[in-house]
Amino acid sequence: MSTSSSSSFPRTIVSYTLTTSIFVVIFLFSVFLFTKHTLEHSLSPYHTDTIPLSVADPLPQILPVSSNETTQNPDDDVAIETNPKEEVVDSRVDDKTVEDSHTEKIKVEEEGGGGGGSRGEVSVSVESKEESNVESEVIEKMRGCDLYKGSWIKVKDDEYPLYQPGSCPYVDEAFDCQRNGRRDSDYLNWKWKPDGCDLPRFNATDFLVKLKGKSLMLVGDSMNRNQFESMLCVLRQGLSDKSRMYEVHGHNITKGRGYFVFKFEDYNCTVEFVRSHFLVREGVRANAQGNTNPTLSIDRIDKSHARWKRANILVFNTGHWWVHGKTARGKNYYKEGDYIYPKFDATEAYRRSLKTWAKWIDQNVNPKKQLVFYRGYSSAHFRGGEWDSGGSCNGEVEPVKKGSILDSYPLKMKIVEEAIKEMKLPVILLNVTKLTNFRKDGHPSIYGKTNTDGKKVSTRRQDCSHWCLPGVPDVWNHLIYASLLLQPHP
């Protein structure tokens, strides 16, 4: 009996030990599974499947803001909304990356296999140094180059147009040719190429950086308003949040208003337009019948001159109003002091008016704080008459390739050059006359008004003086940008 009990004892111990071991293993395994499940979510940010710079999920291509962007078209009204609501750029895209997208290239390189990761490592190298060197070379070559002697070349890249037709809400109806029914679009893809150098690629963000804390003011006639609207559109391309740009008085852009101030909040700068047809003072006189007639005081600066003083960068023009009827005839119109000339030559009046302007600039502009441009005469292309006598340019679809018009240089421009040469203060002449001689294809023509309800647009009076936007004035602003790169002052 005792022998049987002693022999079964080891078997009982073994059975108990085995059962206990199995229980412990099951318990530990359960603890492991519980711990893994609990920690899995907190470790997920470090999981290789979610690394954004991976072979399967490459870095998104960052494109320049300028030419591929499209926004909602403005309303059909002639008045243009000046503070539209825009979609904000995805916050995942770093603002600095967007700003520098014109000047930096991001290169994604996959590095082979290394330890532990099945998807490999990806490195991002920014070739900004090489890009900067290339840009510096372009700028240096411009220093000895005549930027206004050259030709137009057709481009197939994304540089021109600088913004897409219909994308800018600051183009008024008179210049919005595509929206008004113009069907050809080749005129949008011409780039100005100086003979001895290249213009630097237009960088809207860099332009805004150069304007930071400053004011840029365009002063002149409707041709300068044409350029002003272009300036708003090209600079708008440098903004990630386009609602941060607005007219400070809440005004919409219309032909009837002669003063606009647009604020760029993120750069604390303004772009302004001041209407001044002649740069000298317009007035009226009473005649014997009690009616009033217009006069032009060629020895007195325009009434808007107080506004000019506060601008850091000024862009002036005058010219097109000097060929209008009363100005060209010069009868009882031109005035010096209190004397109204019964008859006075319009060319001499133009010369004296520019001297009046030049004298004011010399006496009132501080060259340490202000920079002055004078934008030259912009060529018109009327066939068979003038703007008010049946002249036309409808159907022109490409620039002039040859002919006497390419060498045309009006007497007005020679007078401008003389006036600037005699000035004490340096003035940059944006001599766009000859480069606009080529562009008979760039005018609104019959597309200065919206074609509504299928009605044919009238061809009786065509606009062959102003320019479609996008279009030729964008190049004038490109030249201002190039000039600022050469002369970072002020």
From TrEMBL:
Annotated signal peptide: none
Pfam family of the protein (one): PMR5N
MF (Gene Ontology): O-acetyltransferase activity
Ranges for region Disordered: 63-131
Keyword entries, A-Z: Membrane, Signal-anchor, Transmembrane, Transmembrane helix
Residue ranges with Polar residues bias: 64-73
Membrane topology, as annotated: Single-pass membrane protein
Bias (Basic and acidic residues): 83-110
The Trichome birefringence-like C-terminal domain, residue ranges: 199-482
Primary location group: membrane
UniProt domain Trichome birefringence-like N-terminal: residue ranges: 144-198
Subcellular location field: Membrane
Bilayer-spanning residue ranges: 12-34
Domain of life: Eukaryota
A GO term from the CC aspect: Golgi apparatus
Family indicated by similarity: Belongs to the PC-esterase family. TBL subfamily.
Protein name from the UniProt record: Uncharacterized protein
Species of the source: Arabis alpina
Source lineage: Eukaryota, Viridiplantae, Streptophyta, Embryophyta, Tracheophyta
